[in-house]
Known about the structure:
Elements: E1 13-18, E2 24-29, E3 33-40, E4 43-50, H1 51-59, E5 64-65
Parallel strand pairs: 3-5
Antiparallel strand pairs: 1-2, 3-4
Amino acid sequence: MSRVCAVSGKKALSGNRRSHSLRATRRKWGVNLQKVxxxxxxxxxxxxxxxxxxxxxxxxxxxxxxx
Length: 67
């Protein structure tokens, strides 16, 4: 299962880790994904949703998502 948000499509970002002497090594920033039970197209499913998207869905009072 890929680490991508099912609602917003967010993925991991890549960049550099910087030491005190400013040497750069590659690193990744992951997405804060949560497993959530949702009704999608009339069927209950478990999907991985980012915490940001989950907060938005809750504020909009979304009970079901039409994909």
